Amino acid sequence: MKKCGYCGKEVKGELDFCSDGCEKSYKDENEKDERRIKYFAGGIVLGLLVIAVSAFTKSVFMVGIGVIIMGIVVFLLPFTTPETIAFLGYKRAKTAGRIAGIVLIAVGIWVGLI
Predict the structure, then answer these.
(1) Is there a contact between 16 and 3 (Cβ–Cβ < 8 Å)?
(2) 76 with 101: CB under 8 angstroms?
(3) How far is 67 from 43, CA to CA, in rounded Å?
(4) Which of 5, 26, 66, 71 could form a disulfide with 105 if both were Cys (CB 3.0 to 4.6 A apart)?
(5) pLDDT score at 2
(6) How high is the pLDDT of residue 48?
(7) Which parts of the chain span the membrane according to its record (predicted)?
(8) Neighbour count for residue 24 (Cβ, 10 Å)
(9) How many other C-beta atoms can be found within 10 angstroms of the C-beta atom of residue 101?
(10) Buried-exposed string 61-91: b where 16+ CB fall within 10 A, e elsewhere
(11) Residue 67 contacts by C-beta under 8 Å, 6 or more apart in sequence?
């Protein structure tokens, strides 16, 4: 059975969304995401640069800081793959992305401080 592209509920027939409200919300969120992708990419690159610098300074603390930066970016801007969105729906995929960000932050704290 096909699922709504926004909320993840089952949809009958060939429709992509369960209601017009879900379709409008999906399109609005996609427009916002398109404007924010540059910040996501910049934050991930910043985290990777901090990790790269840690290779030269041989600082495990800096590795943790880099992972924490990436975790914060993923938490604030939880972009997920189209496959995840198709499987879970847009709203649940965003929640899964935020959970992944929290996990990255925890891993960064664990690596950097322990």
Answers:
(1) no
(2) yes
(3) 11
(4) 71
(5) 80
(6) 96
(7) 37-56, 62-88, 95-113
(8) 12
(9) 19
(10) ebbbbbbbbbbbbbbebbbbeeebbeebbbb
(11) 47, 51, 104, 105, 107, 108, 111, 112
Tell me: the pLDDT tens digits for 66-111? 999 999 999 999 998 888 888 888 889 999 999 999 999 999 999 9
Q: In this structure, which amino acid lies at residue 34? A: E
Q: Is the pTM of this model over 0.85?
A: no
Any long-range contacts for 63-66 (C-beta under 8 Å, 24+ apart)?
63/111, 63/112, 64/108, 64/109, 64/110, 64/111, 64/112, 64/113, 65/108, 65/112, 66/108
**How confident is the model at residue 3, as a pLDDT?**
82
* Residue keyed to tokens 């429709």: 15
| Joined tokens for residue 42 | 């910049």
User: DSSP for 46-88?
Assistant: HHHHHHHHHHHHT-HHHHHHHHHHHHHHHHHS----HHHHHHH
Query: How confident is the model over 8-57, as pLDDT tens digits?
Result: 888 887 888 888 898 898 899 889 989 999 999 999 999 999 999 998 99
Under 8 Å between Cβ of 104 and 78:
no
